Amino acid sequence: MAQTEKKGGLLRKSSASKKPLKEKVVLMYDEIFTTEDPSTCNPRFWEELFLMKVNLEYLEGKLEALDGEELMKIKDNINCLFQHCIQALGEEHPIRVVNALQTLCALIRGVHQKNKSTSGFDIINMLVGFDKAELCMKNLMESLDSLLCAEGSESLKSLCLKLLLCLVTVTDNISQNTILEYVMINSIFEAILQILSSPLSRREHGYDAVVLLALLVNYRKYESVNPYIVKLSIVDDEATLNGMGLVIAQALSEYNRQYKDKEEEHQTGFFSALTNMVGSMFIADADEKISVQTNEAILLALYEAVHLNRNFITVLAQSHPEMGLMTSPTSPVPTTPVTPLGTTPPSSDVISSAELPLDADVQTSNLLITFLKYSSIVMQDTKDEHRLHSGKLCLIILTCIAEDQYANAFLHDDNMNFRVNLHRMPMRHRKKAADKNLPCRPLVCAVLDLMVEFIVTHMMKEFPMDLYVRCIQIVHKLLCYQKKCRVRLHYTWRELWSALINLLKFLMSNETVLLAKHNIFTLALMVVNLFNMFITYGDTFLPTPSSYDELYYEIIRMHQNFDNLYSMVLRLSTNAGQWKEPASKVTHALVNIRAIINHFNPKIESYAAVNHISQLSEDQVLEVVRSNYDTLTLKLQDGLDQYERYSEQHKEAAFFKELVRSISINVRKNLAFNTLSQELLLKEFSTIS
């Protein structure tokens, strides 16, 4: 007997001697794509349709093949199909519900595809008809809400979320997606929260739920009142917020683990062996090959939670009990294969034993540590556009954290010490730090380490000015908190001072190239004012008096850089060019640094001459500094401990609009509705009472 093959909705015998036969469902689709009502000849047409396995490929292909005019001719049948799909969602038979959900996905995608090339019809009118749109969409959203909240099939919940993601992402710019008005009016916010608060639902659907929420929050967020923004900002249920934190932490952990695996694989490879033989001349090029796709969708969710909900700040520092577990979840294995959105989402809150080596201190890990590690990876390479966007979003999230009073309280808490192993970019002039030697310190030290690491490693021709500005602003905001609350942080401040001075040196060395693209004086002024902050208020927040002495030592030791900077800004501020005003601001800001240099340098030279020493040691210079503070005169500078608070709408709207567009395209591209095989569904539903 000849074997039967299936392709494109056709059933054909391998002998090819007979005309191919079409599946019954395909024949039924063909009836819908005529101008006649298919239920005229067969009153049970719609009832039978939803018992048939959906052929997504054929249905979407059929819609795409029609032009706008042809589609308008069968509008009544499309409306009818859409309405019967919604009716089928209320059926008790789960197979009907599954087929209705998948058919809705195909319809929405297919009709939206047509709209890209044809503007002759309205999407809502085409799908459901203007006269019935409000009622139909209300019924659809209520059915989806019921299915998501019910104690029913996990597969159905998965399909509901995929339908909603399909609905949200059919247009690149989600704010132009008019169907979302009905998702705003008929909110599914509570259903999303319910998924996040339940351990079982969260494991199965947490990732899709969090991404969906992040996208919905960004619908016309600057033009109208978005109920999802309002509701997210007032959530105070601990279980829900922790659930959201767990989903985000797990997704970021998965990224960190994948990067760690690739890094180890790379280091043990042939190229690594070759590099070790010839020396480290190729190390930067070699590292560029270590690349894991970034996950902007989950990062956007973290940003919205931190930015909108002050209660979420507590989740950042909370250790996740599920993350410390070695055992696998006891829940049944999901029947729905996990669909990647951006990057492959994790299928569980529980970090597997294979992930544990990533963090030697996994029992005391938390979302903030996981996020800092993620940031340290994506911020290494900002040449790639996605990583640049990810790096920028990481710095925006850290900016929000650095401005929050409660976040600062736990960042600086001496009783909350952690060992945070950040990823460091391989560089020729420094050795790789040994992970085991990392000290346990307050979390703010890891944030400062991350900022110092960025400053040191991104002085390059394609200078990421915007990221540097954000980086310096974060350091400044943390110093403002320390000054205000008189927190004496035991940190290796010299590393920060050295990095800042080297940054100034880089700006001066590349003045011509950089000025063609950037106003480098804005950044130079911020760096100089950080030093002014230490000079003016350092005695209130530096850990010891000797730390303050070391600050002066570094300024004196590196005085040539400050002298060169002064010469440069003086030259440009006395000319009538475009840089006159910004350069003169830096000139005025340097007044105290120049006073320190001009006061102590003669004293040091005199000390050396009297004692017949050609080159003074650090201790000898510090001795001169300590004995000559009394005669030093400094000017009081206003506003050093003031800063402009972060504002998304006024400054970042264009960035987020582009970011959300990129995420929408990525989610749509990776969304698969036919991942559920009919056999698996039948097997699952046969056990449902």
Automatic annotation (TrEMBL):
Main localisation: membrane
Pfam assignment, any one: ARMH3_C
Keywords recorded for this protein, A-Z: Membrane, Transmembrane, Transmembrane helix
Superkingdom assignment: Eukaryota
Subcellular location field: Membrane
GO CC terms: cytosol; membrane
Stretches the record annotates as Disordered: 328-350
Compositionally biased region (Low complexity): 338-348
Coiled coil: none
Domain Armadillo-like helical positions: 435-671
Name used for this protein in its record: ARMD3 protein
Species of origin: Quiscalus mexicanus (Great-tailed grackle)
Native organism taxonomy: Eukaryota, Metazoa, Chordata, Craniata, Vertebrata
Annotated gene: Armh3
